[in-house]
Design goal:
binds magnesium ion; about 35% helix; binds guanosine-5'-monophosphate; single chain; 21 strands; seven-stranded antiparallel beta sheet; about 25% strand
């Protein structure tokens, strides 16, 4: 997963300014939760070559005053990376560009990446990274160069070619010195992408609305699924609906876990949705309490994502809400390739509040269970701190299939809900009960819109040709 941003300063033609870089940098700070492996910014001006700075690490570590002032121009692209495919090396970081003509950043995953890569190479194309945005760049530029018509026509054709040949999830922002900024979203709209303005006529594309607000822009509208949006250097916007699918399929995990609680996706507040997910768990818990299977003195979240679900569940049950862990805000990145390291990471991330745990009957709420590392480590900590009885509520249905669209869900065999039922998980954790949200309650919380729920029921919106190779190339996390 990744966070992306694109900024255009339409009210200036100066080559010597870094306003767009500052906006992109701040927007990336607000998107840091979408990826912590690497960050990069590239700037452009019609009269000068691209400038770029990118490195592995957090946004605030990658950039300082000096690097920001060295990136000048009237357009900027920014990227913060969570490596799920390719390698976590500098060569695979974004933005990427081809010569001085096109730059791009991308969020998502291309399912048929390896097939497309082989096709490009067998036609004499040369790819230098294992990052899937390079395939998009290549297809885009190749189509553009082959088109004889106007630039607008060529850009529409290039987007159409990508929509017709690339299967998967891709929200893309790009820049071309003469054309300006452009952005498109795959025909199923799997990953988010929004457009904002500052009312002076400058524009910013970003993965989430929270990033727009953070840089003082307001939401203009979402980039629609299958749509191309272009913004010229003097601020002329054009919307082109290049492809229309009967139903779109935004990823439900954006609301469940990935997006910031302060964002709004498809008009649906992430925070409000998480409250609704929590409320959806109430009837099942109430029935367990009535039957004396669980005893609940306090409802407590695993911070931070599960907090709204726990608050709403506590309200529904009329049982007090408590914080029993604080998140360590100053945790830095460290390399965690193995399972033991993952357990250690969970311990380092949160710190127990002993007074709220000892002797208490706790209903622990988490947003989701993937491998089960978090819940197992947290339950163990609660027992060490002297909790009396423990039960678990999960504000997402069981995850039983891997994700081909960018969420870091591993090979299905390592998913806890593939190995065990809810009752077996309760036995394994040695807790009174484990309750998962029902799919119907998830659908209700999301306003019954069509969603991608491939990880829940294995029904994926796009063809999956090439998925085996894709799975083999995952980054081990
Ligand atoms: P588990 O520990 O079961 O493998 O993963 C579930 C926990 O990790 C939950 O607490 C959830 O908040 C968090 N989580 C879920 N999906 C992701 C993801 O894609 N990346 C990261 N870093 N954490 C995740
Ligand atoms: Mg969590």
């Amino acid at each position: 997963m990744c966070g992306i941003v694109g900024v255009i300063h339409t009210t200036s033609t100066s080559q010597k300014e870094c306003w767009v870089t500052e906006v992109a940098f701040n927007a990336l700070l607000a998107l840091q939760h979408r990826g912590q492996d690497a960050a990069g910014i590239m700037t452009s001006h019609p009269e000068q070559p691209f400038s770029m700075h990118k490195e592995l690490g957090f946004v605030s570590d990658v950039f300082d005053r000096e690097t920001i002032s060295s990136l000048q121009g009237t357009m900027a692209l920014g990227h913060t990376r969570y490596a799920t495919t390719g390698q976590n090396t500098l060569a695979d970081t974004q933005p990427l560009h081809i010569s001085q003509s096109v730059g791009m950043v991308h969020n998502g995953n291309l399912v048929n990446y390896h097939l497309l890569r082989r096709e490009i190479e067998s036609n004499g194309g040369h790819l230098t990274t294992s990052n899937d945005v390079e395939v998009l760049l290549h297809l885009w530029t190749h189509t553009l160069e082959a088109e004889r018509g106007s630039l607008t026509k060529a850009v529409i054709k290039a987007t159409q070619t990508i929509f017709e040949t690339v299967d998967g999830a891709y929200s893309v922002v790009g820049m071309m010195p003469k054309l300006g900024l452009f952005a498109f979203r795959d025909p199923f709209g799997i990953r988010p992408l929004v457009l904002g303005t500052d009312d002076k006529g400058n524009y910013c594309f970003a993965s989430e609305t929270s990033a727009l607000h953070y840089v003082g822009f307001r939401l203009l509208r979402e980039v629609k699924a299958g749509e191309l949006v272009t913004i010229s250097p003097i601020g002329e916007i054009a919307y082109h609906q290049v492809q229309i699918e009967k139903v779109t399929a935004p990823c439900m995990f954006e609301w469940v876990y990935f997006s910031g609680a302060d964002s709004t996706l498809e008009g649906l507040s992430v925070y409000q949705t998480r409250l609704a997910l929590g409320r959806g768990l109430a009837p099942a818990i109430r029935s367990l309490i009535r039957n004396n299977i669980v005893s609940v003195g306090v409802v407590a979240p695993i911070p931070d994502t599960a907090r709204p679900a726990a608050i709403a569940l506590s309200e529904e049950l009329s049982i007090p809400y408590r914080e029993i862990f604080l998140k360590n805000q100053y945790q830095r990145s460290f390399i965690l390739p193995h399972q033991q390291d993952r357990e250690r990471a969970v311990q380092l991330k949160v710190s127990p509040i002993f007074s709220e745990i000892e002797g208490k009957d706790i209903l622990l709420v988490d947003d989701s269970i993937v491998r089960g590392t978090t819940i197992q480590t947290i339950v163990r900590t609660l027992k060490e701190c002297g909790a009396n009885r423990i039960s678990v509520a999960v504000a997402c249905p069981p995850i039983q299939h891997s994700c081909h669209y960018g969420i870091d869900l591993p090979d299905a065999s390592t998913l806890l809900s593939v190995q065990k039922t809810a009752d077996q998980i309760a036995q394994w954790l040695e807790v009174d009960a484990v309750v998962f949200l029902e799919v119907e309650d998830l659908r209700r919380a999301l306003g019954h819109r069509n969603i991608c729920r491939g990880c829940l029921d294995g029904q994926y919106p796009t063809p999956l040709c090439g998925k085996t190779e894709f799975t083999q190339h995952r980054v081990a996390k």
